[in-house]
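Task 17 of the worksheet. Students: predict the tertiary structure of the chain below and write it out as structure tokens. Keep your answer in the requested format; marks are given for formatting as well as content.
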Amino acid sequence: MDSNDIMKKYLKRIERFFDTEKIINENISLEYITNYYRSSILAYKVLHTFRGYMHMGISFDGKYKVSDLLTSVKIVEEYINSRKISRVLELASGNGVNSSYIASRNPGLDIIGIDLSTNPKKNVNGYRHINGDFHNLSVFPDKSFDLIFIIEAFCHSQNKEKVLEQCFNKLKKHGLFVIFDGYSRKSKLSDKDMKTSALISKSMAVDRFISLKEFKTLVKEFNFKIIEEKDFSLNVLPNAERFRKISNVYFSSYLFHKVLTKIFPMIELQNLIALNLLSLSVKNNLLCYYMHVLEKN
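Model answer:
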């Protein structure tokens, strides 16, 4: 059975467990996204690590390891060190685990995180947290950062133009904006692919995955130059395959599902849909995972 056949089988099974039409038509508001992350803290800790990382691990040897969760963070750190950067901002920093890790290894670095989180790490290893929405960076002076980064949260924005504009304004000349995120591999989707993509995105509190082509068009509008682009889709597969195996346990028993719906909020359980379909969507060239490094001209 190839990955397309497995996908069809999984979609049928998911329809038995969840009201897929309701999920696809969900209105993904800022309040919904905030609730999603607050409800999913324990799930992320169990699935990833209790240290609090909430993004995909990037593996280079075909096998997932917990240390792979640090790959994206270390890549950001490499840019900080290679450019002798002194002031950094992380968007959607969550509990601050990414930035506090970088701060602990780079004494003297001024690194700030902005997030709606109500339980962040504060003033840890030189890391500072500001509670706020990354669509509004007015609290910071223009041209005040050497580097801004965001890991798997740009997709949540429904006003990506504003995010790019804000970051462009807050970066110094030749400043960098580093983005790790998922995208639609294709610009045009069949009805089946559209439904699959919507189920994955909505179950992760993402309105929709924009295509790579859309992303690059947006970047050009704001006078950013893409100085590095890396396709890490195959590198996140070991992590995604691990998620698929874990979620298969859930989908193996409808009774188990009914019991868990009495214990956990539906917004948290729906995330299992994405976990079940992510690796197949990458293998079927529906979704992809990229790093982009943008430079302010």
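Marker's comment: DSSP finds 13 helices and seven strands in the chain. The chain has a mean pLDDT of 92.
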